[in-house]
Amino acid sequence: MSEELAYSIHLGSDKNKTVKAKEIAKNNTSGETSFSNNGIQNATQLSKVNKHNLRDYDNYKEEIYVIYGTDNLYKDVQDLYIYEFEQSRIEYNNKQTRDDRKIKKYLKHISQDKQKDLACEIIIELGDMDFWNDKDEYYKKGMIRVYKE
Asked: Which of 49, 105, 119, 141 is deepest in the core (most CB within 10 A)?
């Protein structure tokens, strides 16, 4: 008999931790919920997400394997912003006649705008605690290949 592998995919947000979100999740088939504002809104939140994701606050850091990017989420997002938006930022600035309207750093500009999100976290989980409890390290590390693919 084969084991079933539970999975969940959702956008990360502190709003999903509210009492209202938990009530909605109880009534969903998947048991999950995502509200419309799932974004990481500023650089401070991005740093907190990085600390949480890499388990910088406990002794489980060695269990985290980064498949894409580095162990510095802030720098990864900063590099992405430069790669994706730097040319547009320069073109925008060249059209401006007033210096106060020019954007020096787009990441900082978006981070300071309360109407915009800086990034969005997507969480993909395969299996639940019951599924993983009896698996050895070799089996668990095999999932790195699955996520890479």
From this structure: 119
How many structural domains are present in the chain?
2
Backbone dihedral angles phi then psi of residue 7, each to the nearest 5 degrees:
-145, 160
Number of CB atoms found within 10 A of residue 40's CB = 23
Rounded CA-CA distance 25/54 in Å is 26
Q: What is the pTM of this model?
A: 0.69
The DSSP output letter for 125 is E
Residue 122: name the closest of 44, 53, 22 by CA: 53
Residues 59 and 84 in one domain: yes
Q: Given pLDDT bands bounded at 50, 70 and 90, which one contains residue 27?
A: low
Do 13 and 37 form a contact (C-beta atoms < 8 A)? yes
Residue whose pair of structure tokens reads 């995919």 in the numeric block? 9
The one-character DSSP state at 67 is -
Give the chain's mean pLDDT: 81
Give the pLDDT mean for 68-86: 93
Residue 5, domain extent? 1-36+122-149
